Amino acid sequence: MQHSNAILAINSLDRFTSIGPSTLEFATGASWLVASPNTLTLEAGAGAVIGATLTFEGGSSGWPAIGTVTITARNGQDITINAPVTANSGGVKFLLQAVTYNSGGAAQQPIQNSLIGQYRNLSPYCNNFTITSPGALIYGYIDKIVVSQIQLQYNIPTICVGRNDKLAIYSDPAITTILEIPFGFYTPNELAAAVDTLIANTASLAPLAIAVQYDLLRGFTFTSQTPTDFFFPSPEALIATNVPQETINVILKTYRTFGMNWENSEFVTGTGADKQVSFEYPTFLYTPYIDIYSDILTNYQNVKDTNTSVAKPKGLISRIYLSGVGSPVIQIGENALGSTPFIMTADLNTPKVIQWSRDVAVPSIDFQLRDCYGDLIPGDKERYPTEFQMTLLCIEG
Q1: Distance (Å, whole) CA 81 – CA 70
Q2: Bridge partner residues of 98 (DSSP)
Q3: Is 244 left (phi over 0), alpha (psi -120 to 50) or beta?
Q4: Domain coordinates in residue numbering, the chain
Q5: Regarding beta strands 289-293 and 316-321, do their DSSP bridges make them parallel or antiparallel, or are they unpaired?
Q6: Exposed / middle / buried, residue 135 (Cβ in 10 Å: 0-12, 13-18, 19+)
């Protein structure tokens, strides 16, 4: 017998919903005279909003001792404030104006601040947040919750800040260089061109005259035009030169992007070679899947989720395989997956069924999005948030 169910539709941007308004701050300029103590004159082109507050160092240049005043009226370039000045300003002073954005809001009528939250890249970020509601997100005697569909806007760059942006190159004359690749989305040829330029502009590597190319057959090819032998150092070589383990992990992830492995290291010839070719095929997709976790949703499960990683985290509600289902996905060439942002929908063939308690409503839901390394997905530093929408079926017992 099929039980009835209700849909709980989730949008990750609803994390910006708040019971209070947002505050926007910007500078403005004004002067004042003690002869008209409650009047400020704005400089040409300066703006002011009735109801906004102005802040200046209290007592400085005759500014009211309370420090923060409120604009109560405006007439042309003259504004009225709620406290008197005590001396002439002696010219235009720069003030901090704070304006309430999305005014109103109360405990039972929260405000949707998703537009301003996205625009300003506010926290909580897309990889770790909680959606709350003044009441329950859904009411009813719920027995099970089913994860039905997930739509994902994948915005994880090909090269991410502090994740896979460091490429180490050693050469025979004991030149030790760790390049830092600018973050962003790259096609294979764009990445080759970017690294080629980066090497040419790096003093320690310029004598090697390394040219970087990409082709479908071999991946990346690094060729010294001098020619001078060089290699991509192994973890052992990096440790020997006092490179921190955290940095080594970043370098190894970068090697994975370029398809470089131990055969490109000092172990092959002992000194390297004047040409290095990818021994593994390059991977432009930073992570092949995204795991979505929620401690709240899985709180009443008797059997806890896990995976084969060392961490074995609990609370897994879905693993989104980014290749999707059905048609083959291009992993190479100019259309390599991970070279551009994309949107995909995971219509789960075998949805997760989560045990729930009938006596408990759903007042809030927490989410964490993690990559294949078990880390929170990139995006907050690059300001490229990966958002998602999810359909939950709440089944009445």
Answers
A1: 6
A2: 25, 53
A3: beta
A4: 22-101, 121-157+286-396, 166-277
A5: antiparallel
A6: exposed
Global confidence as pTM = 0.83
Q: How far is it, in rounded angstroms, from Cα 69 to Cα 82?
A: 6
**Do the beta carbons of residue 367 and residue 113 sit within 8 Å?**
no
**Which of 297, 296, 294, 291 shows the shortest CA–CA distance to 394?**
297
Integer Cα distance of 367 and 130 in angstroms: 6
- Residue pair 136/362 in contact (Cβ under 8 Å)? The answer is yes
Architecture of domain 22-101: Beta Barrel (2.40)
HEC string of 115-127 equals HHHHHHCCCCCCC
Q: What is the C-alpha to C-alpha distance for residues 22 and 311, in angstroms, rounded to an integer?
A: 38
DSSP string, 23-48: EEEEEEEEEE-TTSTTEEEEPTT---
Distance CA 62, CA 249 (A): 57
What is the pLDDT, as a whole number, of residue 105?
46
Q: Residue for token digits 């010294």?
A: 224
Among 42-56, 187-201, 227-241, 298-312, the minimum mean pLDDT is found in: 298-312
Based on the number of CB atoms within 10 Å of its own CB, is 204 exposed (0-12), middle (13-18) or buried (19 or more)? middle
Query: pLDDT tens digits, residue range 333-389?
Result: 667 888 889 888 888 878 899 999 888 888 889 999 999 999 999 998 999 999 999
**Residues β-bridged to residue 166:** 180
Residue 381 has which token pair? 């530093």
**For the domain bounded by 121-157+286-396, which CATH number is listed?**
2.60.120.1100
State residue 289 phi and psi, 5-degree precision.
Answer: -155, 165
CA distances from 137 to 8, 9, 145, 296 (A): 8, 10, 13, 13
Contact 73, 79 (CB under 8 A): yes
3-state secondary structure of 171: strand
Spatial neighbors of 270 by CB under 8 A, at least 6 apart, are none
Which residues does 305 contact at the CB level (< 8 Å), separation at least 6?
298, 313, 314, 315, 316, 317
Residue where the block lists tokens 């390059």 = 282
